[in-house]
Amino acid sequence: MRSIFSLAFLCLPVVAWSQAGLVDFESMAEGQPVAAQVNGITFTNATVLQAAASLNEVEYPPHSGSKVACDVGGPMTINFTTPVGSITGFFTHQKSITIQGIGVLGNALEKVSSSASILSSSESLTANFSGPTSKIIITSDPGGSSFTVDDLSFSNYNFPPPSFNVDYTHLGFEAVIGRAAPPPQVITLTADPVDVTFSITSSATWLKASPLSGKTTANVSVFVDPTGLAPASYVGLLLINGGKNGTAVIQVVLRVLDRPQLTATPTSMNFTWKVGAALPAAQKLYVGALNANVDYFTMTKDAWVKTNPTFATTGLAGYSLAVTVDPGKLAPGHYDSAVYVYATEATNSPLTIAIHLDVSQ
Length: 361
Known about the structure:
Blueprint lengths: L21 E2 L17 E4 L2 E4 L16 E4 L5 E18 L4 E6 L4 E6 L4 E22 L7 E10 L8 E2 L3 E7 L8 E6 L6 E6 L4 E4 L2 E3 L2 E7 L7 E10 L5 E11 L3 E5 L2 E7 L8 E8 L4 E6 L4 E4 L2 E3 L7 E5 L7 E10 L8 E10 L1
Parallel strand pairs: 11-18, 20-27
Antiparallel strand pairs: 1-9, 2-5, 3-4, 4-9, 5-8, 5-9, 6-7, 6-8, 10-12, 12-16, 13-15, 13-17, 14-16, 17-18, 19-21, 21-25, 22-24, 22-26, 23-25, 26-27
């Protein structure tokens, strides 16, 4: 079997890159997996090879430039955030290649097959899909390392405009792990002059609508359920099928945030006091939270340290706690104490703010 590889991979950092409609792999690092470097596209089982290094360019030459992607690990899959209608690539391969489209609802679409073998040059393959396509699977040898692809281009799927109206075509939700799902949002379907019978299908398990069918005019509630989702951004589609009246598409973005984390400014405080002098002035403590605002309360390690107030909520502009010390009963010396900030939801509760006090005679 002819080898695609000529040298060992080089371990170089991945360079972020994107260009709408075209992927030529030239700005990506040799030997690194192609994952989500291209905006809106995610690859699996794709590794960058370079001519005069890791690529056998005599039999697997690039179509342009010096870099290609190879199906290392198994069939190469490409997932699209925005559905595509067609894809074209320049392939070099030893066995026949198939390009399989998967619709946004998981349905199998058209499949395109290549010639048996193309070496020492590249073969242009184009797949046109009859429906919105969110995933493409490219297979030659199921074990992988069987083809290279270069200059991969694609076009977005053009949904025919419906003869009914939707007041919103894009919705956004934000959810925090451990909290209740965000409230639903409402879209309104209308038609003029006649009623349109519609049905709704979701492309994602976390995305739901109610009602799923009816007649215009109708208010439809859109729900998201972040249960089990890791922190990340997710994109789903609601397809509103109006039969002969066309299909409307609602794109829904769900941003899932990790559990809140407490922050404090400053993270430590220093006080000095000379016996017989006025007590040290209060210092300001700003408590915040990452990902979501939380209720919190404070406790202190020693009675000579106090905060005012002892209960508050993060996110109030300019709001601070006053931290004071009362060393009147302390002998001269150095003292270490702490303020503890507690929040039930926060993953780093309690947060400790160190308090240092020097008492002099």
